[in-house]
Predict the structure.
Amino acid sequence: MTFEKLENLTFDEKGLIPAIVQDAKSGRVIMFAWMNLESLKATIETGESVFFSRSRQELWHKGATSGNFQVVKSIQVDCDSDSLLIQVEPKGPACHSGTESCFDSGTIEVKA
């Protein structure tokens, strides 16, 4: 199934949509970031992850400074059209701390 128009996505009041980034090979979630329409279009055009940095208020091409690019394999839209799942082939660690995933900081235990 192909998503018809990017303009049909539901962006928040700041023009952003959540993007969950997953290693296409292992299935592991490696990071979470925000995208706006411009960064999503750049991602589609370049085939590499481009996000929107809320702290810098600018586009952020993942790997531009670190060399840890992400080659995009697919972009899936959730059932409400308000979040994205981006499957990538990482070319290095996803996290700025040098770990494979931004979710390597620890686990909160839940009582079953």
